[in-house]
Amino acid sequence: KKRKQKFQVHHLQELFETKLGAKHVDYEQSTASIVKKCCEEFSSDNDEPFYIVNLSHYARQYLQWMHFLGRIHPFYAIKSNPKNFIIEIIAELGGGFDCASSEELNLVRETCGNNFDYATRIIFAHPCKSISHIRQFRQVGVQMTVADNEDELKKLKEHWPDAKVLLRLKPDDRHSLSPFSMKFGANERECITLLRLARKLNINLVGCSFHVGSQCLDPKVYTETLKQARRIFDIAQQDEFGFNFKILDIGGGFSGYDWDKPSFPEVAKIINNTLDKLFPKLEDITIISEPGRYFSSGGMTLVTRIIARRIHNRVYKSNEKIVKLERNISGSTSNSFENNDDSDNNSKSDKALIENADNIYYINDGIYGTFNAIIFDHKTFIVHYLKMKKDKKKKYPQFRSVIFGPTCDSTDCIAHSIDLPLLDIGDVLWFPGVGSYTNASASNFNGFQTKKYIFIWKK
Ligand code: PLP
């Protein structure tokens, strides 16, 4: 099995070298040096922003998944980053897909063609579907979907009577950064009503699904929801209902970063232990999952340029400020931020922070683009800088800075207060790990959008 996987990965590497010009990069090479090289090679006379995509990341995540959660088939949640290259890699390695709309389904069709097994490798994982989308999924041969309310069951009876339907449960997702339970999911009492209706309508209920909320910080939620699923599996079997549930879908919510806590192996261990107790292998239940950010987060780095600046040139006389600057000189060259998240200045208004900043920079991607994830995904970005003009200084004093995006809108502010050295027009700000819920939900407002992708394959 391992030899086969190695062969598949090697094949993908060669395929993407030919197809997308993905350059092979040594595994040891730092992202900083790759960014520098790309800036020199691809954009020395071009200040457009671009993404560096490390295609081997998606294969690595797939292999890691199979290593730690081998019982569970991953169905990549396309919404987190709907790009053909991710779909192609995951499909080649054997994964399936969670599609929530006709457009997402079309992406799989474009990438995987007609021979793909739509019946077993796609789930239409939206509990509230439009009829035109149902028609298309059905036409293509998709069989699995989810429902969490009576009207959806009636809709399926009329428009997709042969669907295999999973009941979507409602977990306690308080500890997730993006909870979904106020919008989707049925509690246990509602599930029983749905079981009764499904029996009456002769709907083919085949199992349960759930989503613990995106960026789930407490893995115990998986345990608790799996217990809930077990109870529904048991109730569904009772004579009154007579179903024989065979599919369990444990949704998404897994982190995409190695440094996040709890780590993926830790979460996997908790899930495996619970599954072994509640859904032992003997029972022959197919277990699937819908990871989105787990696959997509770490694969992309955004590279932007400073296109304009406003330098306030303050003279630093106060001792306090000098101490502060010195502390920062010996600090890291990177900063992370969630827009205006600065503990010293939390009480100040954004306007005051901007007015009191030392320097203001304008870069060529912003809140309407990649950084929409600050608003929609509670995302924390990590910023690094790269000075393009050679300078003998090794360390640079840091200044309170503001970073604006490129549009004409003043809400297009990426960071209200962040420590950065004095940077010039043409210098680079780059942001690693921007692959999920970023380009997927970016707009073209004001004519600005990061469209260029540079591909590498880190070995
Ligand atoms: N499945 C469903 C139904 C979702 O709504 C989402 C996210 O919105 C996902 C899977 C992917 O979640 P995550 O990116 O947290 O893995």
Descriptive account of the structure:
Keywords: Lyase, Polyamine biosynthesis, Pyridoxal phosphate. Its cofactor is pyridoxal 5'-phosphate. Helix content is 35%, strand content 22%. It has 459 residues and is α/β, with parallel strands linked by helices. The chain folds into 2 domains: 55-296, Alanine racemase (TIM Barrel, Alpha-Beta Barrel); 298-458, Lyase, Ornithine Decarboxylase, Chain A, domain 1 (Beta Barrel). The strands form 3 sheets. Strands 1, 2, 13, 14, 15, 16, 17, 18, 19 and 20 form a 10-stranded mixed beta sheet that branches. Helix 4 (84-93) packs across helix 5, helix 9 packs parallel to helix 10 and helix 10 runs parallel beside helix 11 (264-278). It is globular, with a radius of gyration of 25 Å. Pyridoxal-5'-phosphate (PLP) binds next to helix 12.
Q: How many domains is the backbone divided into?
A: 2
Distance between the termini: 20 Å
Largest sheet: 10 strands, mixed
Q: Percent helix among the residues?
A: 25-40%
Fourth CATH level, the homologous superfamily of the largest domain: Alanine racemase
- Percent of sequence in beta strands: 15-25%
Mean pLDDT: 90
CATH class category label of the largest domain: Alpha Beta
Instruction: Assign the structural class, choosing from mainly alpha, mainly beta, alpha/beta, alpha+beta, or little secondary structure.
Output: alpha/beta
What radius of gyration results from the CA coordinates?
A: 25 Å
Low-confidence stretches: 315-333, 340-347
CATH topology of the largest domain: TIM Barrel
Q: Identify the bound ligands.
A: pyridoxal-5'-phosphate
Shape: globular
What is the CATH architecture term of the largest domain? Alpha-Beta Barrel
- Count the helices. How many? 15
DSSP E strands, number? 20
